[in-house]
Write a structure and sequence with these properties.
With 89 residues, the chain is an all-beta fold. The protein contains no helices and three strands. It is elongated. This is Mini zinc finger.
């Protein structure tokens, strides 16, 4: 599952503007199912797939393994875009 978050920041100068684009992806499940017996075993789920629509409680549960989204490895890609317009003289 991939999310995209766009953050717009207005600068003090009217000649510059910038935006930050963050792409968030949730990878493989890292929940240790054998922790209660002192072991280590993961279920093999390779990617988070939401079981419900965004904004519902199902959006936080993986449809493949049933674990909460927090057990899945979070990958964040950040892109900063700056635009500069020279001032008129």
């Amino acid at each position: 599952m991939k999310k995209r978050q766009v953050v717009l920041k207005s600068g003090r100068s009217s000649s510059t503007s910038s935006s930050v684009i963050r792409n968030v992806r949730y990878g493989e499940c890292q929940k240790n199912h054998a922790a209660n017996i002192g072991g280590y075993a993961v279920d093999g789920c390779r990617e988070f797939m939401a079981s419900g629509e965004e904004g519902t409680t199902g959006a936080l549960t993986c449809a493949a393994c049933g674990c909460h989204r927090n057990f899945h490895r979070r990958e964040v890609e950040t892109e900063v875009v700056c635009e500069y317009t020279p001032p008129n003289s």
